[in-house]
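Hi U.,

Before I forget, here's the chain from the pilot set. I'm dumping it here mostly so it's searchable later in email.
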Amino acid sequence: MTETAVQDHAATPQAIAAQAEATAEKLGIARQAVGATILGQQQVIDHTLTALLCGGHALLVGLPGLAKTKLVETLGAVLSLDARRVQFTPDLLPSDILGAEVLEQDADGKRSFRFIAGPIFSQLLMADEINRASPRTQSALLQAMQEQHVTVTGSRHELPEPFHVLATQNPIEQEGTYPLPEAQLDRFLLEIEIGFPDRDAEREMLKLTTGQREEKPAPVLTAQELIDAQRLVRAMPVGESVAEAILDLVRGARPGPDAHPVIGDHLDWGPGPRASQALMLACRARALLNGRLAPSSDDVAALAEPVLRHRMALTYAARAEGVTRRELVAKLVEAVL
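Structure:
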């Protein structure tokens, strides 16, 4: 499926349905391939694939040893993406991520600057423990995540297509870390929490990962097929009731006159319009991932927490009372949907 095909037939429901059916079949195979390596984390896999299908970025939050790095490596292999990993540390500089201009001299003695690209020039960048780097270094990702290019010494450099950032964060060890600013958090389409696998999955994991050989996942999709799937997601129809549910949720999570009664005065600030856009795209992607032609209110309910949670800030009084953002989103979903 090419870009031209999507554009030419975007107004034809039959064409979109045929394209969605073929794409959903391939996505199902990719899902199984990732699930065969990342055991007991199907919801995490689905949410991460949803973020990639939207052309967005995801923040993976979980304790050490829960296969966050393995998930990114596996996705890179299954989706045939150029994946690179950067370990964020307090001494990491922006140039260590973006690259830098170096002065070179040729055989004739003529000097010129040459740009040496950093690891950000990849299709899938893993920002490992992103909150361990300084705010200055964290901000180096802002332009890239939003605009798909970087500017170094006044020169613009385009990033490869597709471009995704999957960042990881440890939720309990905060010593020596720098909290992500609101502008940075808002660039992540989803915040995905990773919990412990169940007993059966962990038993299977023991067998698969402690033997002499560990099977490597095989490529299922190409980078171009992923790009085509991303364009298809944007062409999928959305019912008016789903759009209204998204607006009710996002606007209801903002403090002020539009705040839903269950939110009350618990929030300092809430999600902006980018959250509405993210939820709309994510619902379309989740529907495609599950072989459906259009999203439903079930998709809105399933994705409300990973879309909204990191775009909300509790007041001091709410934190003192033990209120959590997860509880607020759950109450809002129950009240609205």
